[in-house]
Amino acid sequence: xxxxxxxxxxxxxxxxxxxxxxxxxxxxxxxxxxxxxxxxxxxxxxxxxxxxxxxxxxxxxxxxxxxxxxxxxxxxxxxxxxxxxxxxxxxxxxxxxxxxxxxxxxxxxxxxxxxxxxxxxxxxxxxxxxxxxxxxxxxxxxxxxxxxxxxxxxxxxxxxxxxxxxxxxxxxxxxxxxxxxxxxxxxxxxxxxxxxxxxxxxxxxxxxxxxxxxxxxxxxxxxxxxxxxxxxxxxxxxxxxxxxxxxxxxxxxxxxxxxxxxxxxxxxxxxxxxxxxxxxxxxxxxxxxxxxxxxxxxxxxxxxxxxxxxxxxxxxxxxxxxxxxxxxxxxxxxxxxxxxxxxxxxxxxxxxxxxxxxxxxxxxxxxxxxxxxxxxxxxxxxxxxxxxxxxxxxxxxxxxxxxxxxxxxxxxxxxxxxxxxxxxxxxxxxxxxxxxxxxxxxxxxxxx
Length: 448
What we know:
Layout: H1 2-16, E1 24-32, E2 39-48, E3 51-56, E4 65-68, E5 73-76, E6 78-83, H2 120-125, E7 129-134, E8 148-149, E9 152-153, E10 171-177, E11 185-195, H3 197-204, H4 208-227, H5 229-233, H6 244-254, E12 260-264, H7 267-280, E13 284-288, H8 296-302, E14 306-308, H9 327-333, E15 338-340, H10 352-361, H11 366-372, H12 375-380, E16 398-401, E17 412-417, E18 420-421, H13 427-435
Parallel strand pairs: 1-4, 1-5, 6-7, 11-12, 12-13, 13-14, 14-15
Antiparallel strand pairs: 1-2, 2-3, 5-16, 7-10, 8-9, 10-11, 16-17, 17-18
């Protein structure tokens, strides 16, 4: 163990020393590109200026800092969808993801509450996660939760949002990177979170149909506002249910530039969301979709992507009676673009790679599962030109593994984000090392 720790430290130092412009070559690697090149059995990745310069079977260029992967696996950094990273620390003490405000719903933007110093970020990074999509939580979600932290279901207070139109919208998601930096924001305003099913009924007054009617009314108000902003400013239009801040925030949604992240579970509710999207001409991303396999052909025909937890199979409420461990495999087989999320969103998001491995165990092809934690979420949230696959010109977000990344015993030996080497440690690892050997002298604060 000590030899392994020493070798990892030496490797980290080797790639941390050069400046960003230094050429680094990772050699003798089994490369899973998650891109058009597929798998390269033994190849070299060249990184320069924070970008991937080349990926192939060639040798390291002259003068490059060489990192020998020793036959290990190299993958793109994983992209965690539906994450809470940077916006929550101790869940029981609150978060920066939930708003109860009659004038702020759609306008809520998680980018302004991000904490790059969160102790949860290094833990996720050590699991190969280099990017995350941070999504707000509905104040009146109710029903089946969409996340679980530390094995405990997370339910938000039912009815706190009332029937105010602002409660229909949880707010706007953002893409972050998990590198050590003062600013971790990559791309804001990548999706508008809306609860459906029992959660949507809860914020709309108690019925699923009421939410659809309320959403249609809200979209109509936004279009009226867009047509005559000047009249709105001088109070020359009818009363609108949403505040000006929410109306402005929803313009990209009704124009089809910002997708709705629809938190939905039941097959019939999924059909209702797809119908709403058709009628209102808005873009949709399904989140949860435990019964998605039951309507997989309809989801595929609509060209709608799905974010799911492949281990969600407990029928805890009536809206997830059809939950199945084969959900990811069946949706993928139907041609749906699938992204796999990590359990918990924050404290257990590190389990993302295990979730992908379990999806493979229940029928999802290995390469499809790899895509579901790399290029697929990057495509869904509009950053596939930057990350998600190992291709020349993309950001050098990559991880060198001792073995198969979906195997729990495999560990990272190097993590690069935008070409910068990241520390191979976290607070948990530091605490482990501090207390694992109690035969020697205690730390200063703990005398015998």
